[in-house]
Amino acid sequence: MEQKLSDRILNMSTSATLAMAAKARELRAEGKDIIGLSLGEPDFNTPDFIKEAAIQAINDNYNSYSPVDGYADLKEAVIAKFKRDNDLTYKPDQIVVSTGAKQSLANVALVMINPGDEVILPAPYWVSYSDIVKIAEGVPVEVPTSIENDFKMTPEQLEAAITPKTKMLWYSSPCNPSGSVYSEEELEALAEVLRKHPQIYVVSDEIYEHINFAGGHVSMAAIAGMYDRTVTVNGVSKAFAMTGWRIGYIGAPSWIARACNKMQGQITSGANCIAQRATITALEAPVSKIRYMIDEFHKRRDLVLELLRDIDGFQVNVPEGAFYVFPNISSFFGKTLKGRKIENASDFSLYLLEQANVATVTGEAFGNPNCIRISYAASEEELREALRRIKEALS
Predict the structure, then answer these.
(1) Looking at the chain, which terminus has fewer C-beta neighbours within 10 angstroms, N or C?
(2) What number of CA atoms fall less than 13 Å from residue 234's CA on the CB side?
(3) Which residues contact 332 (CB under 8 A, 6 or more apart)?
(4) What does DSSP assign to residue 272?
(5) Cα–Cα distance between 235 and 42 in angstroms, integer?
(6) 175 with 322: CB under 8 angstroms?
(7) In this structure, what DSSP letter does residue 210 have?
(8) What are the two backbone dihedrals, phi and then psi, of residue 195, each rounded to the nearest 5 degrees?
(9) What is the pLDDT of residues 181-201, one digit of tens each?
(10) Share of the chain above pLDDT 70, in %
(11) Are 181 and 212 in contact (CB under 8 A)?
(12) Order of strands, sheet of 230-235, starting from the edge strand that comes earlier in the sequence
């Protein structure tokens, strides 16, 4: 029988991070010793105090459908978190809890974007932004940034990218894949441009907020004039090592939140009830309870930068957050390594997988064809061995 899939799915890219992880799993199944530095997932276990809250919820018989936008007391915990950490004041009808921050983003795209609307994406950007925008029939507008500027978009670049069709700006800080963190001054400079264009809305993805070595996180919604046009996206996956629990949330103008609630009600309804109960405990805990993970990521970042600087051909900057480095490897383009011609970052990433048994992700997936993403969410021993293998494969 002829297969007749929709144009929507046929035109969609496969997530490059998930594809590389799948390829690494295949090679492991064949008996190869692959070190995976491709997935954006903490290598820590979920803290015990959060697991205990989930067990308590099971014993308390939380097993029924939850409200579409989240339990009322979870929304209150989200509101308290926004006030404590971001100096943002939200009401319950401005909060929507979803099955991961990825669903939060998809909800916003589907309720805000009309066919042909343009969405500015400072590149590199998180791998799924572009395809989520396309699913909503929007047009991703990539704004290339450089390693010399720590992969941050300038106000001049933002101004130049704006057209009469611009509807939104999406960015993450700390950034996946670059680890860049926008300072208050840098966000204020971008907001100065946006205040001249009141029709543009902002998605501020702050999922890596606490994994921050820069000494402070600032939300776009806290910048003067931006609260009523910013959707703040967050969740518990990264800082709390809860990737598989699948809880994300937004703080947004109430009319946007209500629309997201309506959208979610037709697609998944409420998020997992046990994970929601555990998330209340996570959000109410002081950040000091997860400080051990943040400190460890900081140590690993410094180690990886030290080892990368010892490999000829890698250009690195100092990322201030998340758990990635995003080195420029374009000096290898045009060269032949062990019989393989390296034309682009995808070739280079595959070469490292085949010759060094190390999985990374091509920067092309993030809108930057000159770089690769290396996740340092791995043990010090694995990181040292991976970088040793990479150096050997390139020597």
Answers:
(1) N
(2) 28
(3) 313, 342, 348, 394
(4) P
(5) 14
(6) yes
(7) T
(8) -65, -20
(9) 999 999 999 999 999 999 999
(10) 100
(11) yes
(12) 95-98, 248-251, 230-235, 201-205, 166-172, 118-123, 139-144
In angstroms and rounded to an integer, the radius of gyration of the C-alpha atoms of the chain is: 21
Residue given tokens 């009322």 in the structure block: 72
The whole-number pLDDT of residue 329 equals: 97
Distance CA 43, CA 45 (A): 7
Pairwise CA distance, residues 127 & 30, whole Å: 28
| H helical segments located in 226-344 | 254-267, 273-284, 291-308
From CA 122, how far away is CA 144, in angstroms rounded?
A: 6
- Element holding 122 (H helix, E strand): strand 118-123
CB 190 within 8 A of CB 225: no
User: In b/e form, how buried is each residue of 251-264, taking b as 16+ CB within 10 angstroms?
Assistant: bbbeebbbbbbebb
Instruction: Quote the DSSP letter at residue 328.
Output: B
The token pair at 355 is: 């010759």
Amino acid (one-letter) located at 14: T
| Sign of torsion over alpha carbons 104, 100, 319, 281 | positive
Q: At what angle do helices 254-267 and 101-112 cross, to 10 degrees?
A: 110
Sign of CA dihedral 193, 199, 205, 209: positive
Cα 352 from Cα 386, distance rounded (Å): 10
